[in-house]
Amino acid sequence: MIDVGKGLIGETLSVVVIEVNKDEKRLVVSEKKATWLQCMQKLREGDVFQGKVNTVTDFGAFVDLLFPDGSYPVTGLVHVSELSWDRVYNPRDLVQEGQDVQVKILSVDLDRMRLALSIKQLKRDPLFETLDTLMTNESDDETVNEDDILTEPLPGLAEICQELLKEEGIEEISPGRIAMERRVVSQDLELWLSSAPVQDGNFTLLARAGRQVQEVLVKTTLEREDIKAAVQRVTGRVP
């Protein structure tokens, strides 16, 4: 610290006054906070920045934001819950120190000098889709309607529906529309919570295996996040 201080003698710095004590004739200032506050004037919630991972901990990753002048003047935290839409057991499995990442600013706390960032908010939540967004509409040849191809029950969907009915707050489950994709995404059964508008307490799930996509209508008293959690629990325990 003494060596650093000696190197600053004669330099002009921008600082913020932290403490003024007239009795002890003491003045405490902070160059770090001055730099931070200046940079914060250029940041807004929702902004997207390139950054470099500084440190990875059990509770998330600290990311240095890249400014247009090529500097990395401020650091923010990507909490473990904002790294991925999937459950993260170890942040080090997703990011490493020195890695270049893209982040979205969630919040700026000027008083506490804290910056909350997110990586997952730049990606679509895989559990929030609709049948229309799931299907490719690039050309008429990409998809076909249910009337064009005979469909069979999706393997394992009946068991999942039975398990969902055991979840508190779920009252009724019924089938919805069916669509077919010409390309095969996965032969395994996948289940999503649709972002389609809720009508009369009915949420829409999307089930897919191979080329077939099936809507499942769920009547419930639960909120959207609770339904999402129920879907994750059921798919986790049904083989």
TrEMBL record:
Organism classification: Eukaryota, Viridiplantae, Streptophyta, Embryophyta, Tracheophyta
Pfam families: DUF2103, S1
Described purpose of this protein according to its UniProt entry: Associates with the EF-Tu.GDP complex and induces the exchange of GDP to GTP. It remains bound to the aminoacyl-tRNA.EF-Tu.GTP complex up to the GTP hydrolysis stage on the ribosome.
GO cellular component, one term: cytoplasm
Matches recorded under PANTHER family: OS03G0844900 PROTEIN
GO molecular function list: mRNA binding
PROSITE patterns recorded: S1
Domain S1 motif positions: 46-120
Name recorded for this polypeptide: S1 motif domain-containing protein
Superkingdom of source: Eukaryota
Annotated source species: Ceratopteris richardii
SMART domains, A to Z: S1
